[in-house]
Design brief:
Main location (chain B): membrane
Radius of gyration of chain C: 19 Å
Order of helices and strands of chain C: EHEHEHHHEEEHEHEHEEHHEHHH
Helix content of chain C: 40-55%
Bound molecules: sodium ion
Membrane topology (chain B): Multi-pass membrane protein
Organism (chain B): Flagellimonas nanhaiensis
Protein name (chain B): TRAP transporter large permease
Radius of gyration of chain A: 19 Å
Number of strands of chain C: 11
Distance between the termini of chain C: 48 Å
Keywords (chain B): Cell inner membrane, Cell membrane, Membrane, Transmembrane, Transmembrane helix
Number of strands of chain A: 0
Number of domains of chain A: 1
Structural class of chain A: mainly alpha
Distance between the termini of chain A: 16 Å
Order of helices and strands of chain A: HHHHHH
Oligomer: heterotrimer
Chains: A mainly alpha (about 150), B mainly alpha (about 425), C alpha/beta (about 300)
């Protein structure tokens, strides 16, 4: 339980920081262009990459809290033991997707963009760094879901 | 036509939804399974990852977290409260007054921002709690918010109309913008009528008529809050910032005002930032996953196959427009707007121009149609935002949504078969 | 069956000369191979933006694409040389470089990044268009906010000419121009026309600062699965498409210029000298990058 709390806290702080930087970044974009009359070259790109991070890391945070929208009419109607089993099946499906799609696929994406040295146009940031959030987030979601599965066994 | 991919897609998607898998994961998993039909395993895994991440790689999407955040700040900072107090003295005595306020504000918001999701998140977080306080069903409030938010995509400025212009090979953006006003306002009016009837039927609180003095007092209170609208519209019109940047200005302004009203403190900020990022993330995972699904649909040519089959049926203009509208309504159920516009414009536009339809008119038909799809489960970004913000569930919102859908469909058919509604304004400016 | 489907995705509209040329290439390949090679083209960014599709080539889920040299330089850095301002004297100079050994060298260079460079398509030259005053001399750019692509080279170019380079996404540009967030932008005539930016910008000054080409590339994963014979058919079809595309492009350019003039745009042809002078330093600053600098000298000597 303690590990889970620590992960939650880390995600929370990261999300708060990214969100604040996103706002400041876009305000700076307007300020540098309109007030300083020397438009910033990196803000647009930074904003988009932060957006990816908020979305993908946030997805992990939200998964830990079970806040993702589901249509659970059928399982609720069935109820009882079958409903519990279905819930476990759903968790397993998510774990499998996170493993193959996000962790394996995401790591391969990071590997390819790192190996082939793709850089972003404005910040000259390695794309591998931007994409790293996918396998990382995939691992966190797997951790949350596996601990949920074990709790319910 | 390849049947295997489409079967895999539909079966896995429906199956996953049925056992209660969260929608975003259902979309992502079924997209990956479908991809595995024609793409080798490792490239497929990697492609799903890439689509989910790059689906969020868009500056225009920033308006979503920012309007969610500013909405929350307005809520906690006493701005929303003052705005609504003022609006209530104005239309509070009508049945469903708050719902009417919602529609009108959404249309106003639509005239500021190009994104329906932004509008849904701002209005939903400000008005939702107020409606509940007044005894409205949470789901009814969410439904009105969701449907009215889409009017902002037809009322200019509108990013999606720009996307359409590009996909159509150059329909005039200026003409498209002008063409959007009447259909957008018409749709808003229809929604107001339905909302008003529903509220009357449910017997929601109808306020008392306010005195002029009360109106004046609430107005003065609301001036700094109303100034936000002036700031945002003024800033865009004066060319100080773009529509997306305006959402960040809205955050700054509502934060400052919240501090001045002493209703927000630095201590409260992290909490507000966190809950806004969580709401944002719910939406973003859905968008990312939808982008994977759109990719695999296009990759397998599924949209083209479906429309070729259906258009082989007739060459009557009225019938074809009907068929196209039905196809687009079905597409909208499962697909997000931007990819749908990009995929279906080049397929349908040559067909309808041969029948003598104006590309500008068709653009309005298409966007208005796909607006409905944005509000329908299982895949509808505005629906997700509206439901997320109202903290309710999709299946509960469906019931009050149905009559509002009917209103939108009626508006759609009027706009489809009366081209003047779209083309009159542009014709005044020789466009 | 023994038919192979080649999947080509790109970001252009189907009316664009490059799409038409690639479509013809697909037909030719099918004929040459007696139907054993089929090409499936996905236009309009259906499968992603230029950058994303190049990445999908490296990932191995798509076979081919066409990208702007400006996009490809983030994958294969040497290509950046082609985007330098006033590197080419004129269009013939550009074509002779693309078609000659330097062009081939640059195409081959992409191979180490898992991308097989196949050919250059003409993307014309980019010039400034503005809202309220035509750009006859770099002085006319002073203090003007000019939208540029998100590329270091493009930004350096506009600032060395005296303007304020402003990266704004293509989708937001129309409204940004209309409302005056930026004062102008730069692009080739067909893009200026098709984007409808001429409705807002009434001055188009053909200073022709860059000749960045479009480049056809294939994934090496895919290319290596082709037999020598199949590669031969591909090369033949590609070669035919290049000359066809240049003809189409020239027509599209003339058409676009005529159409914007008819719509009330003042099209001017300022002297390039003053413009190219301002960018001399920019090229000189690349002296430290020996490889690139040598390439510049060779291109200039061509
Ligand atoms: Na709008
Ligand atoms: Na939908």
């Amino acid at each position: 339980m303690k590990t889970r709390k620590k992960i939650d806290k880390t995600l929370e702080i990261t999300l708060i920081v990214i969100m604040s930087v996103m706002v400041l970044n876009v305000l700076w974009q307007v300020f540098s262009r309109y007030v300083l009359n020397s438009p910033s070259s990196f803000t647009d790109e930074l904003a988009r990459y932060l957006m990816i991070w908020v979305g993908v890391l946030g997805a992990a945070y939200v998964s830990g809290r079970n806040m993702h929208v589901a249509i659970d009419v059928l399982p609720k109607r069935i109820g009882g033991k079958t409903q519990k089993q279905l819930e476990q099946v759903v968790r397993v499906a998510i774990v499998l997707f996170c493993f193959f799609g996000m962790v394996l696929g995401g790591s391969r994406l990071v590997y390819i963009t790192y190996l082939l040295g793709q850089y972003s146009p404005a910040l000259q940031l390695p794309l591998a760094f931007v994409y790293m959030v996918i396998p990382a987030s995939g691992l966190v979601i797997m951790y949350y879901k596996i601990s949920d599965i074990r709790k319910k066994l | 036509m390849e049947y295997v991919p489409i079967l895999v897609l539909i079966l896995s998607f429906v199956g996953l939804l049925a056992i209660g898998t969260p929608v975003a994961w259902s979309i992502a998993i079924s997209s990956l399974l479908t991809m595995l039909v024609s793409v080798p395993a490792f490239p497929a895994f990697t492609t799903v990852s890439q689509r989910m991440a790059t689906g969020l790689d868009s500056f225009a999407l920033l308006a979503i977290p920012f309007f969610i955040l500013s909405g929350e700040l307005m809520n906690k900072g006493g701005i929303a409260h003052r705005l609504i107090a003022f609006a209530k003295t104005l239309v509070g005595a009508f049945p469903g007054g708050l719902a009417l306020i919602n529609v009108i504000s959404a249309m106003l918001m639509g005239a500021i921002a190009g994104s329906a999701m932004a509008s849904a998140s701002a209005m939903g977080s400000i008005l939702g709690p107020e409606m509940e306080k007044e005894g409205y069903d949470r789901e009814f409030g969410a439904a009105v918010n969701i449907t009215s938010a889409t009017t902002g995509l037809i009322i200019p400025p509108s990013n999606i109309l720009i996307v359409y212009s590009l996909a159509s090979g150059g329909a005039s953006i200026a003409a498209l913008f002008l063409a959007g006003y009447i259909p957008g306002i018409l749709t808003g009016l229809f929604l107001m009528i339905v909302a008003s009837f529903w509220a009357k039927k449910k017997g929601y609180n109808v306020g008392e008529r306010s005195s002029l003095k009360a109106i004046a007092k609430t107005f003065v209170d609301a001036v700094p809050s109303l100034f936000l609208l002036v700031l945002v519209i003024g800033g865009i019109v004066a060319g100080i910032f773009t529509a997306t940047e305006a959402s960040a200005i809205a955050v700054l302004y509502s934060l400052v005002l919240g501090f001045i009203y002493k209703e927000i403190s630095f201590k409260k900020l992290p909490e507000i930032l966190l809950s806004s990022s969580a709401t944002t993330a719910i939406v973003m995972l859905l968008i990312g996953a939808s982008m994977s699904m759109s990719w695999v649909l296009s990759f397998e040519n599924i949209p083209q196959d479906i429309s070729t089959g259906l258009l082989g049926i007739t060459d009557n203009k009225i019938m074809i427009l009907l068929i196209i509208n039905v196809i687009l309504l079905l597409v909208g159920i499962f697909m997000d707007m931007t990819p749908a516009v990009l995929i279906f414009t080049p397929i349908f536009l040559p067909v309808v121009t041969k029948l003598g339809l104006d590309p500008v008119h068709f653009g309005i038909i298409m966007i208005l149609n796909l607006c409905i799809g944005l509000c329908t489960p299982p895949v509808g970004s505005v629906l997700f935002v509206g439901v997320g913000i109202a903290k309710t569930t999709i299946e509960k919102v469906v019931r009050p949504l149905v009559p509002l859908f009917v209103a939108m469909v009626v508006a759609l058919f009027i706009v489809t078969y009366l081209p003047q509604l779209s083309l009159w304004l542009p014709s005044l400016f020789d466009l | 069956s023994d038919t192979k489907t080649i999947r080509l995705a790109h970001g252009l509209d189907v009316s664009h000369p490059v799409h038409k040329a690639m479509f013809k290439m697909g037909e030719d390949v099918e004929t040459l191979s007696d139907g054993t090679l089929k090409m499936e083209i996905y236009p309009n960014q259906q499968l992603g933006t230029e950058r994303e599709v190049v990445e999908l080539l490296q990932i191995g889920s798509l076979d081919m694409t066409k990208v702007s040299g400006a996009t490809l330089e983030n994958f294969a850095p040497k290509i950046a040389v082609l985007g330098l301002p006033y590197l080419f004297r004129d269009r013939d100079h550009a074509f002779s470089v693309f078609d000659g050994p330097i062009g081939q060298e640059l195409l081959d260079d992409a191979q180490q990044y898992w991308l097989k460079g196949l050919c250059f398509y003409d993307a014309g030259s980019r010039s400034f268009y503005t809202k309220d005053k035509s750009v006859e001399h770099p002085n006319d750019l002073k203090g003007k906010k000019i939208r540029v692509m998100e590329s270091v080279t493009a930004m350096n170019m506009v600032s060395s000419m005296g303007g304020a380079p402003t990266p704004i996404s293509w989708g937001e540009l129309y409204t940004a121009l209309q409302q005056g967030v930026v004062d102008g932008a730069e692009n080739n005539p067909p893009s200026f026309y098709l984007s409808r930016h001429y409705e807002v910008c009434k001055y188009y000054s053909l200073n022709e600062h860059t000749f960045t080409p479009d480049i056809l590339i294939a994934s090496t994963h895919f290319w290596n699965t082709l037999s020598e014979e199949e590669q031969g058919w591909m090369k033949m079809a590609i070669e035919n498409s290049v000359s066809y595309q240049r003809k189409l492009w020239a027509e599209a350019e003339a058409e676009a210029l005529a159409a914007v003039e008819k719509a009330g745009v003042t099209v001017t042809r300022p002297s390039k000298e003053a413009f190219s002078k301002t960018t001399v330093n920019m090229l000189e600053e690349l002296r430290d990058n020996e490889e690139l600098y040598a390439l510049i000298q060779r291109i200039k000597a061509e």
